[in-house]
Each structure stands twice: as C-alpha cells, then as structure tokens.
C-alpha cells in the first residue's frame, strides 16, 4: 500500500510527522486513536493493515454505546510509525494543530485465524466489501466494533459502530481526555513551546540505535565560572542508557551490559514512561540525607535496600530523530518537556555559569564532585570530550585488581589488593589497598578471584625501572597471589607519588560496569588550558613564520601575513586557523581519500595549479597512495589526509580547498556517495539552483532515498546520496543520470548535456562526477572565491528562496558547526539499496 498521497501533502522539513516505519511480519495487529485539534477537533481512527495504517477521521470520536453510529471519513493511508506520533504539526502545514494519542492497543478480525497474514487477508476482503468487523484491545476501548461503508453518500464515508457485548456502555468515553502515552491533555501538549518543535525539526532523521556508548568527561583540577558552561551534580552511581522503542525497553551499562534484572524498578518506570527515545542518565540509591551512595547501590537487591532513582540528563534519540547533532542546551530543553510524573525518573539539576559557587555547595553537601558541560556541546558517543569536564571533590579512581596478599596469622580472607592502571597501553603497578573492606565484601571478592589466579605478575616493565616491577613483600612477609587483570574496583586516596603509587588509598567498591582495558590513570588537566578553545589563536597574530607541533609532527608555517583574499583582507594565517578549528569536522570526509591539491601560493588572485602526484615532493611522514588511472603512463602517488597535521600541511602549501575522491583507498572502485552537482551558468540565479535542488529532493523522497545537500561554496550546490561503498562508480552514475533526467523533465531551465555550448545557458545537472578519481570540494572546505566562502552542509528546510553561498564563510562557519554539529554525517552511513532501486526503475 503506497504512501504517495500522505507524502505529497507534507513538507517533512517542517513537520515532525514520520515518513515511514516497518510493521512486524508476525505478532499482533496494532491500532491507535489520535485526538487531533486541527481546523476542527476530531479523532483519527487508525488500523494497521499490510504495513500501513488505514485511517478514518471520526468528528465526534468513538462511542461505547451501540445506538451511536459515528461518522468516519476514510482518509489517506498513514505510515506505520504514525501510531507513535504525538505533538504539534506547525502552522502552514497540512493538518496543522495538536495531536494526542487518545488510545492504542491491538486488534484482530472477529473469527478464528491461524496467523497475522490470515487476519490481514480477511480484513482486506472486508475493507473491499465495505464492512469490517473486529475486536479492540485498548487502554480505553475494548470489545467488538464495526466499520461499515455508507450507502448513497461519498465513497469515503463510513460508520463506526460498537457491538453489544460486556464492554458496551451509555456514558461518553471521550471525557476520558488524557494521552495514554504521556498522560498529558491536548491543551498541555499544545503548550509545547514553538522553539522545541523547531529544535526537533533541525535534528536529523535516523533509525533507532540499538546500542550506544555514553559520552565521557575529562578530569580537570579546579572549578570555574566561564560563560557558556553549565554545571551538574556528579552522581555516585551507575551510568545507564535507556533504550525505548515500540514497546521494547532495555537499560544498558557503560559497557553495554543489561541492568534490566538488577534494577527492575527503574526498568518498570522506564517502560511506563512510554516514549520512543534513548536517554542518558545515572542510576543511584539516595541515603536518608539525600546523598547518592555507591556502596548502597552496589549492594542493592530489592526495595528494602533503599530507594532507586534514575536521574536523566541527556536525550540522544527521539521519535526517529538523531539528537546528538543538536547542542546540549537544545537536547535538555526537549528532554525537560518529556520528564514523566513518575518520581523514580528525575531530571538532573543544573546551573549556568556559577561553577565555583556550585562546586562549593557540592563540597559542603559531601557530594563526589560536579560536571561542567559546554551549553553548545554536541554528543559524541563513546568519546572522552573536553566539552564535558569533571571536577572531583574527593580524589577517586578506578583501578585494576592485579593480585592480593595475605599476612601471616591473619583471619581475614586477604590483607591487601595489589593495584594497577594502564599507561600508554602498558599495565603499571599503582600500589596496594588494605582498608575500606567489610569481611563479607572480602569473602565475595575472594570467590571472584579464584578463577583468575595466575603464576606470574601481570605488570610490564616501565621506563622508571630497569626490570619488571615486582611486588615488594612487607615486613610481615605477605606472599602475593597474582590475578589476571580483569576485575575493576574504585578507591579514594590523598595523592599520587612520583612513582605513580596511590597514597593512603581506601577501597570504595567493585565496579563491574567498567572494562579493565579502559582503566587508565586519570590525570587532572589544568582547567585554564582546557578552557582555551582551539581556535584563532592557534597561530599567533604576529610573525611571518611559525613552528608548531601537531600530532607529534613539527610543522613550519610560512608566509602567514600573505593576503589570500584581497577584498576582505583574509590572510594565509586566517585560513590555517580555520582549518585548525574545523579539522575534527572535515577529516571524516578526507580520511583515506586521495587528494587533488588545488594550490594558490599567492592567494585567489594569483596563479594556481593542480597537483595530484606528490612523489618526492612531500616529507616521509606524509601518507601516499599509488594509483594509475586509465591513460596514464605511470603511477601517481596521491597524498592522503588522515590527520590534522596532514590537513594543515596541505593548507600551508596554499591548497585552499580540499578535494577528496568519493571512494577510499580501501575500496577505490566503490564510492561512499553518489553526487549530483548543480552548476549554474552566468545567467542563472541561485534561487533557480535552489528550485532544482528541491525538485531533486522531492523526487528522491518519493523513492525513500535519503539526500543531503551542501552549498558548493561557489555558485552551485551539491547533493549527496549515501552508498556505503557497496556499488561501483558505474552503478552510481547510472542512478544519478536517471535522477538528473527526471528533474530535467520537470524544469525548463536545466540541462544534462555535457557540452557547454549545448546547455544554452541552463543549469547543468552534472551526474558525471560519479567516476573514478573525480573530486569535489569537501564539506566544510574553504573555496578560493571572494568572501572566503565555505562549502556548507544544509538542512533541507534551509534550502529556500533567498539562500546564498555567500552566507557561509570562514568567519561564521565554526559558530554554525558548534550550534548544529556535523549534519552531513549520514552521508558516511550504511547507504541505500541501489540494486533494488535500479530494478524498480
């Protein structure tokens, strides 16, 4: 069943309504009733059937009284995921207004059927015949109902009728007026700030992530009060991600292990929450004094051991949207509207700018520490970021248990643990801890130790010792029992000696949520140094020549005062500072891709030349790729740009723009993306370029093909389709040609002619860029054009009349990236099913 009519009526760049969704082939059929306050209040009655939701608008809503025959107007099919949609459709869009999930559940046709397929076959026959009879199992509606097509009225006119059974009633069921999903009324949903809706529209559509690793914070020495930062309590608990999607809910630890059984009250609360989301938070047990206690959490077995709470502080995915690309302040604003009334799930407290005051208050309360986060920080799963900082009140550290000792004559299971941490990949001895244990703890730990006993010390040699570190027996001649370095515990201590040994350590608890291989010695970085954001001061404002060490490579930057953009006065130094800032965003689109260097040694008004072969012309540390193109007499060695050092080295050569291949050296014949390059002639306007881009986007959207666009940084636009390196350049070009031809048929100012004189002043839709070794300016690349423009990725709702490539330059590109993140990331994803599409076409 097609969704063509549904998609035709909606602008998905402006509304959060879903575009699709896949129903399960087995299991129970779903139904949903949505209360919809549009131009007129009505109820949308939707039944799952063959992968879509057959839909009827019921003006007065359903009734449990068999005497009532409610008018139900059949409307276009809706996608399966629409059953989870609750929110606001913005003004100016089809169906603008507020939508609430009034009821939901499962249903089946009346009668006996073997499976879901048989049920759907029976329902399809009934639909065609104009009389459907089924049983609802909802939270508000239950029992038998019928949908009957009316006679003598419009073809889409039906009646919704309740059958006489034990669920029939005379009262008005619609007075039960809260959402079965959120518990909110229609009025409360309608009060969702327009800004929240706008934020969600900016997020990228993405499938539900089945696994993610939490973003981590960097340890610094002191608190601070800088603007643009906000501060949260550092909870003493287990970090947990809650995954909620289509009724399937799970809690996962930092290592990806399940917390479902261990912390079942939290799981139950998350299930009751009923949203489609991935949230980041901390599971804690709070003491009578209101403080989180890790010991009590570790020993928690049931409600008698204390009250569990789940403090949620970040939202990573919500209703088909990847929110990691939004700044923290927007992710938290959206999350704040979703916090349920269930008091087990709570919102983490935060304060802006007053970090020192917040730290002092946390210290007085006896908390573990505070977390500082940049308000504009994006979420990078699994990365330890300097946009999130932790400041500890108590000195604590995870350590690896590498062995234990037992003093002569002691009745304890063991006397001390021998500790280790990894430093630069090598396991180092870090001292021993003999206090902080309960006798019961020691007995349990000894049971864990038995299968890990080994003969030799697990420690490696270090630069500080001429031979491997050996445990030095104490005066009581305690023998060491060595263990495989697999178990992790947490200690607190006073300081670390010059030899890297913890002084006055005390055992806190075992940490099964931490992987031993990830336990490194945490060293406090100076907060002042971390706060100095990498930016325009990379190269100092004076000095024509400077030497900087980048990625361990000493780079000599020359002619820094040379003006590269005469009209604006931008220098080579300005360009290098920009590439230093943008490196982490642009490098994913350059790594392992041969580069064609377009060099402008004297700026954009001077002469330029292309350099592909760098044989004998670059330092030894520069990575190269040998390639012999068709027609070449010999192999050329292309430069690879896999590091920030390589990026800055290229820029220092005067390579203003970065021009990578569409494929990598790992699969050189299989591009990661398909490109449509919109190249206007002198007589074309950029508004016309925008119209071509939107036409192509609509064509691709109808096919279910994700498309991502960016300004070229010059006069045109580039549209990228992710391929995932699964298809050849020939296949990519074939599909691009088909798309270009379809768009060309719809517009009268475009051309797909390769020869310039045959285009007759029209915009050229270039599909021939999809060929081996062809290059285009990378996303975020500077262009050798007036204004120092940047090739900037865009959201489709930004592609509209009035847009100009001159809107994005080296002056404002970084600010935009900090606010929006890398919205082009999906281009590097798994890619479309091109073979299936080509067969259809």
Automatic annotation (TrEMBL):
EC class: ligase
Enzyme Commission designation: 6.5.1.1
CDD domains for this protein: Adenylation_DNA_ligase_LigD_LigC (cd07906), LigD_Pol_like_2 (cd04865), OBF_DNA_ligase_LigD (cd07971)
Protein name (record): DNA ligase (ATP)
Biological process annotations from GO: DNA recombination; DNA repair
Domain named ATP-dependent DNA ligase family profile: residues: 301-434
Catalytic activity: ATP + (deoxyribonucleotide)n-3'-hydroxyl + 5'-phospho-(deoxyribonucleotide)m = (deoxyribonucleotide)n+m + AMP + diphosphate
InterPro entries xref list: DNA_ligase_ATP-dep_C (IPR012309), DNA_ligase_ATP-dep_cent (IPR012310), LigD_ligase_dom (IPR014146), LigD_PE_domain (IPR014144), LigD_pol_dom (IPR014145), NA-bd_OB-fold (IPR012340), NHEJ_ligase_prk (IPR014143), NHEJ_LigD (IPR052171)
Gene Ontology molecular-function annotations: ATP binding; DNA binding; DNA ligase (ATP) activity; DNA-directed DNA polymerase activity; exonuclease activity; metal ion binding
Alphabetical UniProt keywords: ATP-binding, DNA damage, DNA recombination, DNA repair, DNA-binding, DNA-directed DNA polymerase, Exonuclease, Hydrolase, Ligase, Manganese, Metal-binding, Multifunctional enzyme, Nuclease, Nucleotide-binding, Nucleotidyltransferase, Transferase
Cross-referenced Pfam families: DNA_ligase_A_C, DNA_ligase_A_M, LigD_N, LigD_Prim-Pol
The UniProt record lists the keyword Nucleotidyltransferase: yes
Needed cofactors: Mn(2+)
């Amino acid at each position: 069943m097609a969704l063509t009519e549904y998609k035709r009526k909606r602008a998905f760049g402006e509304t959060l309504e879903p575009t699709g969704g896949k129903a399960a082939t087995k299991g129970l059929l779903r139904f949903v009733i949505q209360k919809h306050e549009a131009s007129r209040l009505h109820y949308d009655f939707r039944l799952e059937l063959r992968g879509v939701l057959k839909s009827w608008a019921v003006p007065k809503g359903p009734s449990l009284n068999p005497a009532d025959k409610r008018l139900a107007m059949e409307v276009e099919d809706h996608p399966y995921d629409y059953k989870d949609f609750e929110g606001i459709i913005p003004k100016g869009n089809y169906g603008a207004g507020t939508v609430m999930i009034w009821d939901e559940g499962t249903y089946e046709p009346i009668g006996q059927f073997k499976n879901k397929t048989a049920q759907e076959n029976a329902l399809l026959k009934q639909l065609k015949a104009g009389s459907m009879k089924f049983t609802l199992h909802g939270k508000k509606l239950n029992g038998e109902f019928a949908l009957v097509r009316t006679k003598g009225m419009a073809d889409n006119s039906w009646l919704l009728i309740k059958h006489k059974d034990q669920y029939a009633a005379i009262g008005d069921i619609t007075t039960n007026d809260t959402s079965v999903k959120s518990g909110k009324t229609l009025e409360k949903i309608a009060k969702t700030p327009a800004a929240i809706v706008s934020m969600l529209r900016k997020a990228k559509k993405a499938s539900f992530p089945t696994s993610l690793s939490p973003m981590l914070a960097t340890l610094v020495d002191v608190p601070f009060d800088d603007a643009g930062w906000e501060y949260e309590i550092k909870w003493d608990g287990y970090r947990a991600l809650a995954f909620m999607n289509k009724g399937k809910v799970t809690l996962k630890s930092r290592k990806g292990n399940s917390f479902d059984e261990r912390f079942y009250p939290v799981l139950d609360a998350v299930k009751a929450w009923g949203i489609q989301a991935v949230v980041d938070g901390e599971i804690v047990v709070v003491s009578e004094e209101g403080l989180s206690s890790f010991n009590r959490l570790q020993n928690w077995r049931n409600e008698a051991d204390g009250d569990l709470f789940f403090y949620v502080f970040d939202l990573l995915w919500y209703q088909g949207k990847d929110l990691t690309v939004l700044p923290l302040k927007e992710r938290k604003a959206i999350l704040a509207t979703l916090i349920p009334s269930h008091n087990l799930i709570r919102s983490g407290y935060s304060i802006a700018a007053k970090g020192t005051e917040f730290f002092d208050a946390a210290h007085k309360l006896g908390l573990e520490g505070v977390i500082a986060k940049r308000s504009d920080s994006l979420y990078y799963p699994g990365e330890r970021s300097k946009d999130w900082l932790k400041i500890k009140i108590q000195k604590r550290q995870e350590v690896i248990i590498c062995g234990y000792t037992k003093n002569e004559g002691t009745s304890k299971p063991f006397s001390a643990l021998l500790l280790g941490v990894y430093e630069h990949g090598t396991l180092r001895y870090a001292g021993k801890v003999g206090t902080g244990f309960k006798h019961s703890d020691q007995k349990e730990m000894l049971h864990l130790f038995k299968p890990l006993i080994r003969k030799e010390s697990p420690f490696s040699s270090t630069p500080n010792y001429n031979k491997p570190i050996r445990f030095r027996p104490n005066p009581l001649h305690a023998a060491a029992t060595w263990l495989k370095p697999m178990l992790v515990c947490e200690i607190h201590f006073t300081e670390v000696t010059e030899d890297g040994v913890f002084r006055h350590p005390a055992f806190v608890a075992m940490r099964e949520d931490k992987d031993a291989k990830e336990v490194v010695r945490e060293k406090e970085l100076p907060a002042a140094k971390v706060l100095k954001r990498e930016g325009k001061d990379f190269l100092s404002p004076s000095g024509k020549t400077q030497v900087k060490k980048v990625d361990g490579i000493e780079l000599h930057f020359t002619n820094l005062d040379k003006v590269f953009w005469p009209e604006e006065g931008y220098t080579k130094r300005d360009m290098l500072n920009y590439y230093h800032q943008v490196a982490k965003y642009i490098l994913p689109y350059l790594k392992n891709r041969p580069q064609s260097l377009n060099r402008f040694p004297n700026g954009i008004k001077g002469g330029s030349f292309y350099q592909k072969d760098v044989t004998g012309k670059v330092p030894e540390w520069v990575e190269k790729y040998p390639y012999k193109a068709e027609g070449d007499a010999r192999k050329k060695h292309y430069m690879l740009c896999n590091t920030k050092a390589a990026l800055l080295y290229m820029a220092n050569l005067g390579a203003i723009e970065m021009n990578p291949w569409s494929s990598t050296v790992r699969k050189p014949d299989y591009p990661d993306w398909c490109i449509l390059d919109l190249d206007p002639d002198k007589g074309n306007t950029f508004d016309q370029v925008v119209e071509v881009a939107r036409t192509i986007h609509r064509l691709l959207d109808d096919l279910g093909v994700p498309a991502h666009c960016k300004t070229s940084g010059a006069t045109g636009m580039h549209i990228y389709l992710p391929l995932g390196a699964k298809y050849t350049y020939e296949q990519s070009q074939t599909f691009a040609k088909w798309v270009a031809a379809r768009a060309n048929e719809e517009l009268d100012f475009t051309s797909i002619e390769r020869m310039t004189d045959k285009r007759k002043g029209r915009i050229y839709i270039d599909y021939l860029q999809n060929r081996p070794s062809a290059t285009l300016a990378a996303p975020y690349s500077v262009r050798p054009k007036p204004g120092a423009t940047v090739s900037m990725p865009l959201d489709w709702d930004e592609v509209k009349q009035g847009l100009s490539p001159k809107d994005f330059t080296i002056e404002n590109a970084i600010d935009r990236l900090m606010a929006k993140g890398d919205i082009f990331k999906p281009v590097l994803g798994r890619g479309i099913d091109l073979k299936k599409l080509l067969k259809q076409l």
